[in-house]
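USER: My hope is that you can spare some time for a protein that puzzles me. I am handing you a single protein, as its sequence and its fold in token form. Walk me, if you will, through where the backbone shape changes along the chain. The protein I mean follows directly.
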Amino acid sequence: MSPNDDELSALLNTHATRHRAGPGLQARVRSRILLAGLRGAAGSALSRAAGPDVLRWRGMAAGFILGVLATLVGVPWVQQIEQDRSAEAAVVASHVRSLGSGPLIEVASADRHTVKPWFQGRIDYAPPVADLADVGFPLLGGRVDTLAGTRVAGLAYTHRKHVINVFVWPDERVAVLRQAQIRGFNTLQWSNGRMGFRVISDLDAGELGRFGETLRARTAAP
């Protein structure tokens, strides 16, 4: 059964990441709107001189233009929702696995200068690693994990016996910090135009939010 309008709106508001349209897309949309206006004006003049056939042609043209615009704007949203759902499931599975069969960490150290170089040669990018012990979130270490078939950097922090998993990978988008609860776990996600971050823990939502804000500030893109 397909979702109704209210359910679809809720899905979009919860999962869709909004991105500013690039110059090319903006130009295409503006040109189509202008074309629709010109056709509408011409159709209006023709409809005064002609009959139902012209009105039918105008309706078909308007439907085509609206369809093109809906495709340009709507398809990326739907694709992003599906990608986010897949990523959420992978993050939860990896978090649970790390706490059970493991490994939670492959390099054990509270020193970011030990953890960050460890990733060299294991993944093809250098993940930012922050030391948050001064605000109550000491670093446990790092590992290479796999999310949806992609090798990513995994960092483990702790707070009052709660484990916080942080997954980091290259992401050129810019997205604000979002907080959600998935299967009882509290999660955070954001991207800074250079790296994307996914955070998951059974830690209280307020405490995890404080962790996320601090981590985001200390790993901000220059």
The longest helix spans residues 52-99. The chain has two domains: 5-85, 104-218. The domain at 104-218 is CATH 3.30.200.100 (Phosphorylase Kinase; domain 1). The chain has a mean pLDDT of 80.
